[in-house]
Specification:
Elements lengths: L2 H13 L11 H11 L5 H19 L5 H8 L8 H30 L1 H20 L4 H13 L3 H11 L6 H26 L2 H4 L9 H4 L3 H17 L20 E7 L6 E7 L10 H29 L11 H30 L1 H18 L8 H31 L7 H31 L10 H18 L15
Antiparallel strand pairs: 1-2
Pfam family, one: MFS_1
Subcellular location: Membrane
Organism: Urochloa decumbens
Length: 494
């Protein structure tokens, strides 16, 4: 065949260029059309997503500075060494509730829309976070935290929403919003909890001992978060839905079909071939499941550290701790959160672009193991020297943890098609929440155990504590290699 005949044969292929359709009255199509008309970064939507996710983070991080003292005041622990044990269950109850219901809320979001699930999640946060601050006994604290987690399906839904409101080239930025929002949560949450808990002791002129805040010493930080939740709930009136509401008839025996539809801005009837999802089970998607496992390992490490660090820092030096106050720990978390915000915004994107998510995760795992080895030696420091070293170490550790988490999120979302992304994020949230539910319990139990073995010959006290955390990071390092981690086709190991 000559060149002319080849050109004639190639010409019809250009005529079958895919045509984009928008169904009139469909909110998902409206969002897609806006994205097609404006391919820039949707800063306003990203900010709204970021601040909504902050609602999820604040109730989790705000209790870190005062949970030790709250358990002490609730008088559930018979000995000082047992405080960490009971504190672990308070931290785990929220994650356990979220683990049990995240997939369910993802299914609801796929059926009725993202916006109702997001708004309901904010409402439940408002109610049960307030009740937690009013807890009169240990069991009320456990119940309110569990309900706060189980009735809040916001996190997985919001991850899917973040990807759906932007172009594919902006997906990495959208997913990193979750990490940067958590960074701000680490600034505001512990600061709110550290400075506003027990206000009658810290600010007796403003809060008399016979006031409501004297009876409920941990209500004020929860109340501040409740007010914030109320404001964000009102702002969701302007939140745009992304779920497609038009219905297409599907036939299981065909992978593609031709449908007739009407453009929202035209009366012309056209035909378009639409590829239907094969509905392959997500559990058979090895790149997805292996990246979720890496995500769970990193989340376990992050949550265990968040549980153990304040307990260790606030415990007495005779038990291998640092003897810090709740406001000191709150200040450390605030500085740590600020460092995460700067790192995720200006440094992390360049590192991942050069090294790739897998190699970055490997380097981070090794670095985290080395860093954790230095923590027990901080007990020999004091004053400004201790403050400087502790803040630097905490900032580095948090940035290393959030790096692996964000890298695993990128791998997850590269492992599924767009129509499976919400379900995949719900599944990841469920498994991650189980991991984070186990972490505080395990961390609390281990912390109580190591406090009783301060004079042990082999890895005494806090040395054993951080050695066990090193083992978890070693597991994360091993998981980044084959055959444990399977990569999607569009990813590389570099």
């Amino acid at each position: 065949m000559d060149s002319n005949s080849e050109g004639e044969a190639a010409a019809p292929l250009l005529e079958h260029k895919p045509t984009v359709m928008y169904f009139e009255g469909c909110p998902g199509c409206a969002i897609d059309r806006e994205k097609a008309e404006s391919r820039g970064i949707p800063y306003l939507r990203f900010f709204h997503i970021w601040i909504i996710n902050l609602v999820v983070c604040l109730p989790i991080s705000s209790i870190f500075p005062f949970v030790y003292f709250m358990i002490r005041d609730l008088r559930i622990a018979s000995r000082v060494e047992d405080i960490g044990f009971y504190a672990g269950f308070v931290g785990a109850s929220l994650m356990l509730g979220r683990a049990l219901t995240s997939t369910f809320w993802g299914m609801i979001a796929d059926r009725i829309g993202r916006k109702p699930v997001i708004m309901f999640g904010i409402l439940t946060t408002l109610v049960f976070n307030t009740l937690f601050g009013l807890s009169m006994n240990y069991w009320m604290a456990l119940a309110t935290r569990f309900l706060l987690g189980s009735l809040n399906g916001l996190l997985g839904c919001l991850r899917a929403y973040a990807v759906e409101v932007c172009q594919p080239e902006h997906h990495a930025i959208a997913l990193s919003l979750i990490s940067t929002s958590w960074a701000i949560g680490l600034i505001l949450g512990p600061s709110i909890g550290g400075y506003l808990a027990q206000p009658t002791e810290k600010y007796p002129n403003l809060f008399p001992s016979n006031s409501t805040f004297g009876r409920f010493p941990y209500f004020l930080p929860c109340l501040c978060i409740t007010v914030f939740c109320f404001v964000i709930l009102l702002s969701c009136v302007w939140l745009q839905e992304t779920l497609h509401t038009h219905k297409l008839e599907k036939r299981e025996d065909r992978a593609t079909k031709t449908v007739n539809c009407r453009f929202s801005d035209s009366e012309e009837i056209i035909e378009q071939h639409i590829t239907l999802n094969a509905n392959k089970s997500l559990f058979k998607n090895l790149p997805l499941m292996s990246s979720i496992i890496l995500f769970c390992i990193a989340a376990f490490d992050d949550m265990a550290y968040m549980e153990i660090f304040p307990l260790w820092a606030e415990s007495d030096t005779s038990y291998g701790g640092l003897g810090l106050l709740s406001e000191d720990v709150g200040q450390v978390f605030a500085i740590t959160g600020g460092s995460i915000l700067l790192y995720q915004t200006f440094i992390y994107p360049h590192i991942v672009k050069i090294l790739g998510p897998v190699t970055t995760s490997r380097i981070v795992a090794v670095s985290s193991m080395v860093l954790l080895f230095t923590y027990p030696w901080m007990t020999h420091l004091s004053g400004y020297c201790l403050s400087i070293v502790l803040n630097i170490a905490s900032a580095i550790k948090a940035n290393l943890a959030v790096t692996i988490i964000t890298c695993s999120l990128i791998l997850q979302n590269n492992s599924v098609s767009q129509d499976q992304r919400a379900t995949a994020n719900g599944l990841a949230t469920t498994l991650m929440s189980f991991s984070k539910a186990v972490a505080p319990i395990g961390g609390g139990i281990v912390f109580s155990w190591v406090q009783k073995r301060q004079q042990a010959f082999f890895f005494s006290g806090d040395q054993m504590l951080f050695f066990l955390m090193d083992i978890n990071m070693f597991l994360a390092l091993i998981w980044t290699f084959k055959p444990f981690l399977a990569l999607p086709e569009q990813s590389s190991s570099s």
